[in-house]
């Protein structure tokens, strides 16, 4: 059974001319109670993440990196211990089967490998990347986000979002163009 694709509203996109206007708009949007918002600029804007209410308090990449490092290091150490003491024990030159100083180089390398792999893939997963399609790509004016325009998007799944009221609100904070973003895939 084929289900027709629903052309759903993703949100509203407001366009601004300068980073100063974008910052002011982001603050007003947060003060108005919207929480599912994002901003797009052609270059980094100092303080924009704070104005959007995006902080580092929920940043999980360091924890994921720690877990990967511990997993790699412990996995490498105990694998060597198992191989040397249990699976293939060989007493060479009178050394003990658990000769842990010999295990340190491999343990270190696997700690670094595990931490780096978990950091990269954890960051990609938490940022929902790769994302070859995004509903904002359907908006023709959004192409200027990498040139000279600044955009603020209020997403439709925000509890306070109402299409007409949110559009009026964006216009009241001096958005030059307010565009409805549709997810058309």
Could you walk me through the main structural features you see in this protein, from its secondary elements to its overall organization?
The chain is an alpha+beta fold and 185 residues long. The chain has five helices and four strands, in the order βαβαααβαβ. The chain folds into two domains: 8-55 and 134-183, Alpha-Beta Plaits (2-Layer Sandwich); 61-126, no CATH class. 44% of the residues lie in helices and 14% in strands.
Please outline the helices and strands:
Elements lengths: L7 E9 L2 H13 L5 E4 L7 H5 L8 H27 L12 H27 L23 E6 L7 H10 L5 E6 L2
Antiparallel strand pairs: 1-3, 1-4, 2-3
Helix pairs in contact: 3-4
Q: Which strand-content bin applies to the residues? A: 5-15%
* Tally of DSSP β-strands: 4
- CATH architecture field of the largest domain: 2-Layer Sandwich
> Could you give the order of strands across the largest sheet?
2-3-1-4
Mean pLDDT: 91
Task: State Rg.
Answer: 26 Å
Summarize the structure.
With 185 residues, the protein is α+β, with helices and mostly antiparallel strands. The protein has 2 domains: 8-55 and 134-183, Alpha-Beta Plaits (2-Layer Sandwich), CATH 3.30.70; 61-126, no CATH class.
Label this structure with key terms.
185 residues, alpha+beta, Alpha-Beta Plaits, 2 domains, 4 strands
């Amino acid at each position: 059974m084929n289900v027709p694709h629903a052309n759903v509203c993703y949100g509203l996109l407001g366009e601004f001319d300068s980073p100063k206007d974008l910052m002011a708009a982001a603050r007003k949007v947060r003060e108005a109670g919207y929480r599912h918002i994002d901003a797009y600029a052609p270059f980094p804007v100092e303080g924009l993440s704070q104005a959007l209410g995006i902080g580092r308090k929920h940043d999980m990449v360091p924890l994921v990196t720690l877990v990967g490092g511990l997993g790699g290091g412990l996995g490498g150490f105990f694998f060597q211990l198992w191989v040397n003491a249990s699976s293939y024990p060989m007493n060479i030159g009178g050394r003990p089967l658990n000769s842990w100083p010999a295990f340190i180089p491999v343990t270190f390398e696997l700690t670094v490998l595990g931490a780096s792999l978990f950091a990269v893939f954890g960051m990609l997963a938490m940022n929902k990347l790769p994302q070859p399609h995004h509903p904002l790509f359907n908006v023709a004016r959004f192409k200027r986000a990498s040139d000279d325009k600044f955009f603020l998007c209020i997403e439709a799944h925000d509890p306070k979002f109402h299409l007409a009221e949110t559009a009026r609100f964006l216009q009241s904070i001096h958005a030059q163009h307010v565009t409805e973003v549709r997810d058309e895939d």
